[in-house]
């Protein structure tokens, strides 16, 4: 399937096809990380979609015809100081669509849309080799505190969407309840 035929879409938490989205994440992580990780991420996606308030969750998908090629969830990350921030997690591109740049294009599309919504900061927790390709930089927890203890601090990454430097955010951070579980960190 050609990447040129993909459509990129933004949804709030009441996306149609929640089962298809959960299946996309399950299948992607099953093939790349195994059954245990697939179940964990599948549950995270289901919980985020079911339990996160409107305005605290954005879902971005890449579709080829009616088939989901990729998906990203962004949930609110709150700090003691007033900043509009979200965490990008999880991210998946279906194995049949990988190695075509779809993930990078979907992330860039999502970040541009979030910028239009005046989101100032996006953080993620993942593979620095991949996420630095789309503008994320490693940050120390002293600069941006994580909501829970990180098992892999090198994977704590951030990007300013307002054109400035990544801010220093003193105090605590809080994620949405679905993400507030040690096994995700």
From TrEMBL:
Q: Where does the N-acetyltransferase domain start and stop, copy by copy?
A: 8-155
MF (Gene Ontology): acyltransferase activity, transferring groups other than amino-acyl groups
The record, for SUPFAM superfamilies, names:
Acyl-CoA N-acyltransferases (Nat)
InterPro entries according to UniProt = Acyl_CoA_acyltransferase, GNAT_dom
Pfam families of this UniProt entry?
Acetyltransf_7
For this UniProt entry, which segments traverse the membrane? Answer: none
Q: What is this protein called?
A: N-acetyltransferase
Q: Which organism is it from?
A: Persicirhabdus sediminis
Lineage of source species: Bacteria, Pseudomonadati, Verrucomicrobiota, Verrucomicrobiia, Verrucomicrobiales
